Request: fold
Amino acid sequence: MFNIFFETTKVVIDRTICNSEPNSRNRIIMYLKSLYMLEKGDRITVPLTRKDLADHLRMDTSTLMRELKALKNMGLIEYDRKNIFIKDASFLS
Reply:
């Protein structure tokens, strides 16, 4: 029971911290960092559609996709429909 409470609280805190970022790219990075730490690997499965993720991060879908493309062009990530592959985890620190 304690573990369920802890995990739920952690998700809420992570979302609050993530959404407190004024910059769209920083919100995405914070979100990726929280998933990266949960999954403990370079392949992150995103449990949301692009629209739902954009809503979750308080941005337009076009902004989300532009920022993901910028991170990809910088050589930091690769992505497909539900997965994001972290190529250089240094940007998550």
User: Anything to note?
Assistant: The longest helix spans residues 2-19. The two ends are 31 Å apart (CA to CA).
